[in-house]
Each structure stands twice: as C-alpha cells, then as structure tokens.
Amino acid sequence: MTTCNFYIDGAWCEPLQPGTPHPIINPATEQSVGTVAMGGALDADRAVMAARRAFDAYSQTTLAYRTEMLHKLQGIFERRYTEMAQAISTEMGAPWDLAYDSQAECGPGHIKATLEAAKDYPFEVKSGKGDLLCEAIGVCVLITPWNWPMNQVVAKLAPALLAGCTVVLKPSEFAPLSAKLVGEYMDEAGYAPGVFNMVYGDGPVVGAALSAHPEVDLVSFTGSTGAGIAVAKAAADTVKRVVQELGGKSPNIIFADCDVDASVARGVKRCMNNTGQSCNAPTRMLIEKSVYAQAVAAATKAGANVRVIQPTEKGDGIGPLAMKRQFETVNRFIDIGMHCGARLVVGGPGRPDGFDAGYFVKPTIFADVTNDMPIARQEIFGPVLCLIPFEDEEDAIRIANDTPFGLAAYLSTNDKVKARRVAKRLRAGNVSVNASGNEYCNPFGGYKQSGNGREWGRFGLQDFLEYKIINGL
Q: Whole-model pTM above 0.90?
C-alpha cells in the first residue's frame, strides 16, 4: 500500500488543507493499492509561493548548469526505468510491453529531445541593433492527465527546467505512482528547494486555484477540452499564458490505391493501442467506397484478433481501461452506437469472455457510421473504432475536417502527390502518411478545440520563454 504525498520546497509533506484521500485502484483487479493525499487552495498557494521564492535564483543559473542538471535527471530516469514502467502498469493497467517500451520511455526520450533542442537554440542573438534575449517566463503550473503520464509530465517538465522556470506539477490523481517517482527523481538529482513542487487535488479545487493564482506566469494543461476551457477561464483574470493540448477525434483516410488490408489492419491496431486512451487515436476510419466492403472485412478480422490481456502479461494486446468512470463511459457509447443506426461488426458492451473483474472492455468496431452520429462526434477514449465510407477525395477531406477537434490525422495512399495535397488540406496539427510516426523533435499539438501551442523539442521550449529586446548596447 503506497501513500502519495506532496513535494513542496524540497521536502515531502502532508497537505495543509486535506481532502478525502483518493484511493489508488489497480484497474485490472479493482483493488486498492494505496491512497493519494488530496489538497486544497492553501496547498496550491504553498506550492506556488515556494516556486516563486526559488525563481529568482534558479532563473539566473547558467544554461550549462541547467543542462548538467537535466543530464543528471536523465540518468536517474534510465537507472530507475523499470520502477517507472511498473508504476505505470499498476496505476493505469498498461500491459507490460507497452508500459516498458513506450510509456516509460517517454521520460528519458523527452529529456534527450529537450537537451538536443537547446544545443543550437537562439537564447541570445543580435536583432537589428539590439540584443534579443530568451528568458524564463517564470513560475509554471503543469497540469497533466493519466493516459500517457510520463509523456505529458516530462514533455512539460524538461523544457521548463531547461528554460530556467520553477514549476508546480499537479498530476492526475489516477496516475499518482509515476508522478511520485518523478518527485523522487527530482529530489535525488539535487534540484534546489522550490524549483520543483508537486501537489495532488481535483481540478475544480486545486486546478482552479493554481490556474487563477496571481504568482503563476504560465499554465500548461493537457486533458479534456471541457477541462481546458475551465483552466483558460480561471487564468484569464491574471492574463497569464495558457498552453493546452486537448481532445481529438482523429480521421484515418484509407484511399483505394493503397494496400487496403494492411492499411486497415494498421489503423485498427493504432486505434486500439493503449486501450484507445490516446488523444490522437485514429478513431474515425474513412474508407473510399470502391473498397469499403473489403476494408470492413479487413477491419473485422483485425479487430477480432486484438488480444485483451492482463497488465502483467507480455506481448501485444490491450489492458483494462484506467478507471471505473471510463469503463462506464465507453460502455455507454457502445450502447449508443448500437442504437443510432451503426452496424456492430466487432465487440460490444461488457467485459470480454474470461474477465470477471477489472475495467476490461471488448475491442469494438462499428461499420456504416455517418459523421453526425454521437460515436463519430465525441471523444470516447476507449477501443472503439468507427468505419465511415466516402465518395472521393473532396468528400474525404470534408468528413475529416468536419469535427470540432484537430489534433491528428492519418491517411494511406500510394500516390505521394495526392498524399501531400490531402495532408495540406487537413486541419490537424499532426498528419501521418502511410503509418509514419511523430518524433520527439517535431511539434505536437492541434488546431481548433484540440488546443493551442505546441509541445516537444524546440517547439515545447518556446512555450516557457519570454522575449526581451535590449537596445543601445
């Protein structure tokens, strides 16, 4: 049984304003493995003021010093790598291979990308007759979700630290074990008191208090679009910078001139990865009508072959959803899909055969979906795929862009000229052609209600910097 407390001003501590402890539930067993201390507005203030006191000294350290410290943090991540994979697998049910190869790897991966970006970043350059300086923006609040915990935490933390900012991390109470390890890593690395602070608490109380705090200069938030709107409103009165990476309902366009069976199988696997709990998951598969029947058959075969496995099991497969709330939401959407005119070809509501406990759901695929159905409009955040036919290239682009989101898009075609033409017209921040993936050095973020700003590499570093021009020197 683990207790997750706060880390403020260089020390582990209990909340000043304790709420009801939040249970840490293993989603594969539905059994408690510990508790999370939940705080209030006083705890948010204590963490922010510790970061404020530390800012002047830390922001004036040299880039060489901050680089050295980040290298040290990277080394600790790598030495304690297995601990992190185990924590993520336990708290959110990620199967072992996914937790080890992908989830935990995001920690050192983002640190390396940040260090690489800083090598030639123009922190101080001539601009006309003046000197242009890039300086730390100040005290930064990092609010992170549970679905890719190290990806979201370290994609924010590494550039903030390198820029010279001090931070307050509010991780999800549903992913506290991995965040606790981050606190331990920071403490072991020897960062000065107040440079890194961590508090747990719910969004409406602690999240709102952090977002509205007048001593906070930036809020970097990853989560649902609804929660992102609340953060932006709370931050508005103090005119602080707000960076958001929010939801998605990403299209995956399958043109008739590609290898349809292979492209569809890849699309199914990518949608189901992490049990569908990825904001950039390709959950709408748009299929050219001339190959629609073939694609539905290929998706049905691929979906039936998706294994549901225990988090402790190695190999390909999907684990449980991360929490009871998500289990109920996904099953509700599956039920909606079955009653709104879509054709169920794989899966359905309830647990898979052989699973009597845990938040396991069946990989589910609907065919004959129209883009106005709730299952095509709303982010389900589970292993649920919608198959939508389209007439031609123009129709595919229209359907793909007909969404309030714009985080990611995918397309498969053997025509490179068409691929570029279509990709340029898709209103999304990340477009993947023929199963290509993003790299840590490239920007991650979206259009429309998928957020604002960009993370990863030099693009994420920019969010934590202010620009100052000094004339006359």
A: yes
